[in-house]
Amino acid sequence: MPDAPMNNSKTQHLTPLWEVFIRPRNGLHHRHVGSLHAADSALALQSARDVYTRRGEGNSIWVVRSSDIAASDPSFAEPNFEPADDKIYRHPTFYDIPDEVGHM
Amino acid sequence: MATADTTVPAILEIADDCLILGHRLSEWCGHAPMLEEELALANMGLDLLGQARALYAHAGELEGKGRSEDDLAFLRRERDYVNCLLVERRNNDFAHTMLRQLYFAAFMQPLWRAIAANSSDETLRGIAAKADKEMTYHLRHAGEWVIRMGDGTEESAARMADAVDELHRYTGELFMASAARTAAITAGLLPDPEPIRAEWEETIATVFAAAKLTAPEIRTWQKGGRDGIHGEDMGHLLAELQFMQRAYPGQTW
Which end of chain B is more exposed for a tag (fewer CB within 10 A), N or C? Predict the structure, then answer.
């Protein structure tokens, strides 16, 4: 029988969390698809291939250590984002688009 | 073109290798040390099962006796399986499993590449072209793990050293040509395994150097699988592998 899994704290220490980004096609952006645990970037890329591209989801993978991502503070969401709510003139919705232009 | 008498047994050797190792990897389902490896092991098992299926179907056609891939995979007796002993060795721990995968992939990848380039059999060339890419991935994945465990913690290094000590003696059989394989080589169906040995040794030396592992000197290579002489674990493996077809003959899904 296979061994019991290592205890959690040891696993976390040896295999940190990585964020995975997949580009579905050439010319499109890499998009965040999830995360996984891996010992280093080479194994993170291999695991990402197995976990996130088994059904032809993409042709390029990025991985980045989760701890290397600087994130905005959720408790600062109001001062960060609400001032944009009443500045509707920042959206280009006040123009009449000529029919000849077609879809924009 | 050789006759089916020689080509079919030679193809079955490779098909059995793929089926049995694929089954061993499937035994990890639900037991892998981490979720990521759970998927990786099942992925590799499915690659091997796919290769086995294509080979069994082709062998059945060449044989012309109406045996299907299921007949060949599930309804033969232990002595009729001609896989090498390496692939039937028990999973043991993750170190054994990854080392076994490295040994096998380092042999199969150049073998498939040579078949894809030079085999006299067009169907086999097609199967090989796809399998070559799959085995390239197995080789990289297993190699990376062997390096990380060999040059890892005290415990992982000890487990890798144990695995080498246990499994290395089974690798000689990969390069032994049975009568069937010799005939297939002469006919141009399969490549000579000797040139592949040099590439295999180089691959293993590269990985072992990075993994701080030493290959033991083997005086007597374990062999017998190609003659249907298997280890004591093979019967247990087949009992599980064959159960559904034995209990529910002709079952499909």
Answer: C
